[in-house]
Amino acid sequence: MPLYKTITVNEHTKVLIWKIEESEAILTQGVELTKKCTDRLQTMKSEIHRRGFLSIRQLLKIAGYAPKDLYYDEQGKPHLTDGKKISITHSFTFTAIIVGDDEVGIDIEMQREKILRIANKFTTFESYKTLANTEAIIRKLTIVWCAKESIYKSYAAPGLSFLNHIDIQDFFMEDQKTTGLVLFGGKTASYKIDFLEFDGFTCAYSQNG
What is the pTM of this model? Predict the structure, then answer.
């Protein structure tokens, strides 16, 4: 069972990361899928998406939940029936969840050159342009994207813009942490953000407050 990493953020918050290596048949073992889960699975044409979907159910099991304990609101935000907060992410061969008492968000992305072409659509960061090489620029931009995506998932408000409403404090990559601020609808919300890199991927997770 390739539980790739467990991160205890604090006594109330935990991150679980899965590396997808098994077949669909193996990933269904020990998990009682609801009819809604089965129906959704059957609509997925991509094998890696189906395996990602199932691996998330395995992560839920590790966290002490069954598929029936997870539901989504009309905005598409996931919730747990016991009132705990949850966020979910999937990128290629990795999936992850974060579960905590406070509002949380998580995102995993593969580090790719594609991010250079869309950087101006999600950040006004200028510091990344002074980095020594393309690889370093890609890494930093991917962290910024993941941080904003994790906040976006946590805040979950229609109309929230990566570029205009979510600000990420500049950071040193070796610190593996930063902060974020949402300015939206006349209100502000602050987030603590941690990030890590592994196997050519970046993961960032945020907590409100």
Answer: 0.95
